[in-house]
Fold Haloacid dehalogenase-like hydrolase (HAD) superfamily protein.
Amino acid sequence: MNMDSFSTGAKFECLLFDMDDTLYPMSSGINLACRHNIEDYMRHQLSIKESEVPKMCLDLYKEYGTTMAGLKALGYEFDYDEFHANVHGKLPYDKLKPDPVLKQLLLSMPQRKIIFTNADKAHAAQVLSRLGLEECFEGVICFETLNEVEDSKSDKRILCKPMLEAMEAAIRIAKIDPKKTIFFDDSARNIATGKAAGLHTVVVGTSVLVPGADVALESMHNIKEALPEIWEGTDQLDSDSVIQPASVETVVLA
């Protein structure tokens, strides 16, 4: 662990969480099912040659942050809602089970808690519901939040992590102070961008630090042992040190 950035004495006011493969383990299989659904969409809806799909899917993800953003950048025209319905609407959500341990940990944290995901709001709602965590977060910053699109055929590029612009937009939308915010994500490149945006960073799902990460957290269940700073001074917090809930311009979950 690199705890230097956590030892400044500043109280944390907000916790910004990625959702998929962060609040639940990658071993659930949701990630793999999502990739298969994207590849199916590319083949059947966009008529991309079968032999090209797997590599193209991965290459676009690496270059643009999401395969969807890459397809848009290449000029493919598709309806965003239809894409999400095909990719997320067919996921095996039954593999996600309620996590009362994580729920209790989240509810015990005195800071504002916000989800920041590249996924659409319907997927976020489904995942949080399956995990039993709907009451734990003030709101969700998602695809619709960063991409206020009235026309899917517009030429505007898709904004998503790990773009610095997306990270800065999330900070602005949530009205948070990066220096007093901890960002949790399983993606090394998202962590690097979070650090570039001035956030404290925790890479989740590994015990190995990645560039830009202050802390490596194998599981969210270990958060109290790894980051006791989150709970420090909770008995004597005054009204000035607890930030009051602010409106998040997206789906409000709690």
Q: What stands out?
A: The CA atoms of residues 97 and 212 lie 31 Å apart.
